[in-house]
Design brief:
572 residues, Alpha-Beta Plaits, 4 domains, 8-stranded mixed beta sheet, 7-stranded parallel beta sheet, 24 strands, disordered C terminus
């Protein structure tokens, strides 16, 4: 296919891809690129993507070929694709599956195989691999200790060779679990088409090509239901890891509502109770608990407390680094990761790939929005000036203090007041990072607040009152970033965030994406301080939403406009 100067894409020799956002084919090109490239920057009229080995390995694991990816670049490119890019794409894609792990039942071990004997010789000499090897069988096969399955995959992805794991799984203890056709509340229930597809692709008809990997879908798209769909296919005892006690109990409620599991079959393993049942729900927090820093994590034994046939990692992008060690030891158990984003702030995406599995399924957020499965969202960034009294303090502060000063800018309070007035008939969440700032908002508005110190029962009561419409405004700290089911929330006002966390931005938007019974549009506001580090980090957080197809309307407020209450200047 010949390049066309009227196309929207420029492919550069450094692996970056420049996409023109005002081009008529922008949406089509963006949806094709996100299958195999990562968004790097999204300023103005040109968005920058980059192909990385990991993005291409995830594409390969999902069934995309090098020629298919090159075909996409050729279809949208203005100019001829640099020759080195063609070579690198083919080389990276070819690395996935060049090494395979398979079971050797006679030896009670694993076979690491490759058609390239020189590659196996290179691997055999690596210190990180040597301790896990038993012996060389022939030019194409190394015998590996079964207990080293996770460790060797971790070691090999670090040198650029992701292993295709075909060693299969140990069947866990049997558990009959069926999805209801009618929920316990009397509503008809069935998996949506994309939920069915995701569960089917993960299960892979029970073959060794399924059984591990990550499903990527937006908040509100029903990832929990996909997990239940997988459970019903496997019919095995299941361990579910969640982000917090609220998420744990939402899982329990969903299981009781939409499956035929009874309460006596579902156990809670938390700081409040330690019940191990055929389906056990726990939190990352309890698994990483230890009495003293130098001691071991006392609850990691839960991974082996039952003969689990499936381990589900909810919000897998938050899987704590200490848990990776335990995950590496249980590679013979099926593993399902659920997340809205593969982005990790600690850059351990390759550990998720090698230990949980590659990305198996995703759907662009805007596609689900167009189909009506998640709410249509309008994103607005409101930029306000820093108050005069703090400008000198900000100028002389260190980098960390600068961010907090800008984040807690009192000018933001006036914007919050105005937004709450404009949305007084809506269900609004005010979300922030700093408790002092949230307390000030509580005092100004009289709205209740939920923080990490709020007892579980009180949180439940407040969430319940919000769902019933008894509370119209709820102030929440970052404790509510994850797995809070508030289906009627349709407005979120973000006053401060965790530096440039894209995963946090995704989760906060996700709080308002569940479809509304009255069809209302969702509104996501981010209030930031102009000309400060607050704005710098806000632009980084936006990158994820841009990748999903959302555009921000930017409102810029001058000192005079804020003081006079005038309408702000709006840019797009």
């Amino acid at each position: 296919m010949s390049p066309d100067p009227s196309n929207p894409l420029t492919v550069q020799s450094d692996r970056t891809l420049l996409l023109e956002t005002m081009h008529p084919r922008y949406v089509e090109a963006r949806d094709a690129l996100v299958r195999f490239a990562e968004l790097v920057m999204s300023p103005g009229f040109t968005h920058t993507y980059r192909t990385t080995p990991l993005s291409l390995w995830n594409a390969a694991a999902a069934g995309h070929t090098a020629e298919e990816i090159i075909g996409v670049l050729e279809e949208f490119s203005k100019y001829p694709i640099p020759e080195n890019i063609l070579i690198e794409i083919r080389e990276d894609i070819s690395r996935y599956g060049r090494l395979k792990l398979e079971i050797d039942e006679e030896e009670g071990a694993l076979r690491l195989t490759s058609t390239d004997p020189i590659l196996l010789t290179e691997i055999e000499s690596l210190e990180t691999v040597e301790a896990h090897l038993i012996r060389r069988i022939d030019d194409h096969t190394l015998l590996v200790r079964a207990s080293a399955r996770g460790h060797i995959k971790q070691a090999l992805i670090k040198i650029g060779y992701p292993v295709e794991d075909l060693a299969g799984y140990t069947d866990g203890a049997a558990l009959e679990i069926n999805l209801r056709e009618t929920t316990s509340l009397g509503h008809s229930f069935a998996l949506r088409q994309y939920q069915q597809e995701a569960a089917d692709i993960f299960h892979a008809a029970g073959t060794v090509r399924g059984g591990s990997g990550v499903i990527v879908l937006p908040c509100g798209a029903g990832k929990t239901i996909i997990g239940m769909g997988v459970m019903s296919r496997l019919q095995m005892q299941t361990l579910v890891l969640t982000t917090n006690i609220t998420a744990l109990r939402q899982w329990r409620d969903e299981l009781l509502d939409k499956t035929d599991l009874t309460e006596d079959l579902i156990g809670e393993y938390s700081g409040e109770q330690k019940d191990i049942r055929p389906v056990t729900l726990t939190t990352y927090q309890i698994l990483t608990h230890r009495r003293r820093r130098e001691e071991d994590f006392i609850h990691l034994g839960l991974f082996n407390a039952q003969n689990w046939g499936l381990v589900i990692y909810d919000e897998v992008h938050l899987l704590p680094a200490p848990v990776f060690r335990a995950v590496a030891e249980i590679q013979a158990r099926r593993r399902l990761g659920l997340t809205a984003t593969l982005v990790r702030e600690d850059e351990k995406e390759d550990d998720v790939f090698s230990l949980i599995g590659p990305k198996r399924y995703d759907v662009p957020w805007k596609e689900l929005e167009q189909q009506g499965w998640i709410a249509e969202a309008e994103c607005t960034e409101i930029r306000v000036p820093l108050v005069s009294d703090l400008r000198m303090t900000y100028a002389t502060a260190d980098a960390k203090a600068k961010f907090r000063i800008a984040s807690e800018n009192p000018r933001k309070l006036e914007v919050v007041d105005r937004l709450l007035q404009a949305h007084q008939c809506d269900h609004t969440l005010v979300i922030g990072q700093y408790l002092d700032q949230l307390e000030v908002i509580r005092e100004r508005t009289g709205a209740p607040i939920i923080t990490g110190k709020t007892p579980s029962r009180e949180r439940g009561d407040l969430y319940g009152a919000f769902k019933r419409g008894e509370i119209r405004v709820l102030i929440v700290s970052k404790v509510a970033n994850f797995a809070v089911d508030l289906p009627d929330a349709n407005v979120a006002i973000q006053v401060s965030g965790t530096f440039g966390s894209r995963q946090e931005e995704a989760q906060r938007l996700g709080r308002i994406l569940r479809p509304k019974s009255d069809g209302k549009q969702a509104h996501f506001y981010s209030v930031v301080t102009r000309d400060t580090r607050d704005l710098d980090f806000a632009q980084r957080r936006q990158r994820f939403l841009t990748e999903q197809g959302y555009r921000y309307t930017i409102q810029i407020e001058s000192d005079e406009a804020v003081e006079a209450g005038a309408s702000p200047r709006t840019d797009r």
